[in-house]
Design brief:
- The strands form 3 sheets. Strands 3, 4, 5, 6, 7, 10, 11 and 12 form an 8-stranded mixed β-sheet that branches.
- Helix 1 crosses helix 2, helix 1 packs across helix 3 and helix 5 crosses helix 9.
- The N and C termini lie far apart (about 65 Å).
- The protein has 9 helices and 12 strands.
- Helices cover about 45% and strands about 20% of the residues.
- Helix 5 links the parallel strand 3 and strand 4.
- Among the domains are: about 90 residues, Winged helix-like DNA-binding domain superfamily/Winged helix DNA-binding domain (Arc Repressor Mutant, subunit A); about 100 residues, Periplasmic binding protein-like II (D-Maltodextrin-Binding Protein, domain 2).
- The protein is of the alpha/beta class.
- This is LysR family transcriptional regulator.
- Pfam families: HTH_1, LysR_substrate.
- Belongs to the LysR transcriptional regulatory family.
- Keywords: DNA-binding, Transcription, Transcription regulation.
- InterPro entries: HTH-type_LysR_regulators, LysR_HTH_N, LysR_subst-bd, WH-like_DNA-bd_sf, WH_DNA-bd_sf.
């Protein structure tokens, strides 16, 4: 039995597809298929059920999976230990991030990572479904590290390190009837048209939950992928938005008060999967991102009167 065969097996299971597993491992699909068949022959057991659409585990595969993950994690830890002695950390870190990162100077963290650990490759990507897609990809092994907000159903499978937490405010156009007010309730906003992020984004989940708690409903007319676009639509009178303070640029902002308002706190966390050892390269990048977040938080606190 070879480590590569176990790597093929775990990738196929986590991706539930041979093509995606091959793409993740940067090999041809035939190599993955042949490697898994060889492993099954050596173990004298079928490990996965193969269909035209998806792959699922057999009983033997379920028994092997946690041990295969442990074996691969131990092998990575051994390689990391030797690398550190012989010239530093190396490898690849697959990092996923939400579309906007207030108070996190990610380019600075990545720049330092490149200078301190030039043999580490960082693959940075976004997910169209926001935080929930990032959480799903972490849990499935398609990412090593992620910066996300609300992880959704996959959250229990992740280790979350809080980086920052900020309140959320209502943003309106200068001509909006509420523009002269200092605060508004969610009930007052029930008839307004909203600009918001798509379902699956952390900010959207928080606002939806606040309205549900308040026993109110709302209509989202415009969905956008970043805060800058949301602000542009709001400024032009096409709707209102409830955004984290760090996103809300200068303009009329109101506190949201009353039932449901206690839920309007947006947080950002650094996440890894519980069922995998992060590895030295992932740990190093995580430490740099955490340090960047602490530095920005300290600067903001010093600037606050």
């Amino acid at each position: 039995m070879e480590l590569r065969q176990l790597e093929y097996f775990v990738a196929v299971v986590e991706e539930r597809n041979f093509t995606r597993a091959a793409a993740r491992l940067h090999v041809v699909q035939s190599a993955v298929s042949a490697g898994l068949k060889t492993l099954e022959r050596q173990l004298r057991a079928q490990l996965v059920h193969r269909t035209s659409r998806e792959v699922s585990l057999t009983e033997a595969g379920r028994a092997l999976l946690p041990r295969a993950r442990d074996t691969l994690a131990a092998a990575r830890a051994a390689i990391d230990a030797v690398d550190e002695v012989q010239g530093g950390i190396q490898g690849e870190v697959r990092l996923g991030v939400v579309s906007s990162l207030p108070d996190i100077d990610l380019p600075a963290a990545l720049g330092r990572m490149h200078r301190d650990h030039p043999r580490v490759r960082v693959r940075l990507s976004h997910r169209s479904g926001g935080s929930r897609d990032l959480a799903d990809d972490l849990a499935a092994g398609r990412l090593d590290l992620a910066l996300l907000s609300e992880p959704g159903p996959a959250g229990h499978r992740l280790r979350l390190t809080p980086l920052l937490s900020v309140s959320m405010h209502l943003v309106v156009a200068p001509t909006h009837p509420l523009a002269g007010r200092g605060a508004a309730t969610l009930a007052e906003l029930a008839d307004d048209v909203f600009v918001d992020f798509p379902i699956g984004y952390g900010s959207r989940s928080i606002v939806d939950r606040a309205f549900t708690t308040a026993g109110q409903s709302r209509y989202v007319s415009i969905e956008v992928a970043n805060a800058e676009a949301a602000m542009a639509y709001v400024r032009n009178g096409l709707g209102v938005a409830i955004l984290p303070d760090a996103y809300a640029h200068p303009g009329p902002t109101l506190r949201v008060i009353g039932p449901g308002s206690d839920n309007l706190t947006w947080s950002l966390s650094l996440a890894t999967a519980k069922n995998r050892h992060p590895g030295a390269a992932t740990d190093a990048l995580a430490a740099m991102v955490e340090e960047t977040a602490r530095r920005r938080t300290a600067q903001r606190e010093r600037a606050t009167p």
